Amino acid sequence: MLLLEVSDSLFSLRTRGDYLSIPDDITIYYAVDFDAYDEATMLDILAYFTRVNTETERIGGRPIGVYGPRQVCNEVAKNGSATASFVANLSSGWSSNIGQGMPQSWSLDQYNAITGVKLYNDSDGSFAKEADLDQVLHSERHGKMWMGEGIIS
Prior knowledge:
By secondary structure, this protein is an alpha/beta fold. The chain has one domain (2-110). The protein has 3 helices and 7 strands; from the N terminus they run αβαβαβββββ. The chain has helices spanning 2-19, 39-59, 70-78; strands at residues 28-31, 64-68, 84-88, 106-120, 127-138, 145-146, 151-152. The strands form 2 sheets. Strands 1-2-3-4-5 form a 5-stranded mixed beta sheet. A hairpin with a 6-residue loop joins β4 (106-120) and β5 (127-138). α1 (2-19) crosses α2 (39-59). The model has no long low-confidence stretch (mean pLDDT 85).
């Protein structure tokens, strides 16, 4: 049963967040990492976020955010099911990004990919590896960022 899965997952997430000392006011983003453009899929997504909200209120979880294309973020926010959006703007070919306005609730905007970034060891400055990184903008209006050692506003 999906409600049971949501309940168990949120309880585990709450427990893990407490273990990691994530402050209670830090948004947890739930991902919709695909091109969700048809009405039936959108209805399923909205139903899922409604269940996430119900269970989060029941267990006292952290604020809810949505990661996904612009249309998904706009619809979930309009439904009142997320307080912040992490917008997957890298996927410009997704039809659920084309022609959609930037969500008013955007907190994070993933807008550019950089390939082959050289990473170095902190301890001695030696080369560690190459990695691909995403550039992300942060807006303070819709949620704080937490980086493990503290809050960035």
